[in-house]
Amino acid sequence: MRAGALVVAGAFASALTMAATGIAAAEPATDITVDGTYLVNVDIKPGTYIGDGTPDPGAGACFWRRLWKVQQPGDYPDPNYYIITSDFTRTKPITVEIKATDVGFSTENCGAWHLQPARPSTGSFG
């Protein structure tokens, strides 16, 4: 019984230590499969993404936005104010470069997005 209590106490101490020091978050994703707003470098990795395009053209077009800030209650009321660039399209596939300096990326009715491998450097300038 005493050994069991020590094991429980040790497990509790380990959990407390991990909670106090913080646990590394999961790596940012390289695929976006659900509509929504994602934080760059937190939820998703920056880079060039290719989207499948609108799964149902009858439901509307794909609308994506690169954001310099994710709007919060109490912020300036116009959501367009926070857009770096955006597109509303029915073309397939869709390509967008999400930069490491972007704060967020928002997608609606675009299907899945997949991060493309970085192109190798050619070693030349220009």
How would you describe the overall organization of this protein?
The chain has 126 residues and is an alpha+beta fold. Helices cover 16% and strands 29% of the residues. The chain is built from 1 helix and 8 strands. The protein has one helix at residues 2-21, and strands spanning 31-32, 36-39, 47-51, 62-67, 83-89, 94-98, 104-108, 113-115. Strands 1-8-3-6 form a 4-stranded antiparallel beta sheet, with no helix packed on it. Strands 2-7-4-5 form a 4-stranded antiparallel beta sheet, with no helix packed on it. The protein is globular, with a radius of gyration of 21 Å.
Short précis:
Helices cover 16% and strands 29% of the residues.
Shape: globular
- Fraction in helix: 10-25%
Strand order of the biggest β-sheet = 1-8-3-6
pLDDT < 50 runs, ≥5 residues: 1-22
Count of helical stretches: 1
Average residue-wise pLDDT: 82
Please trace the helix and strand order, writing H or E for each element: HEEEEEEEE
Question: Biggest sheet, in brief?
Answer: 4 strands, antiparallel
Q: What share of the residues does DSSP label as strand, in percent?
A: 25-35%
In terms of structural class, how would the helical and strand content be classed?
alpha+beta
User: From the alpha-carbon coordinates, what is the Rg to the nearest angstrom?
Assistant: 21 Å
- Report, as a whole number of angstroms, the end-to-end distance: 72 Å
Number of E strands: 8
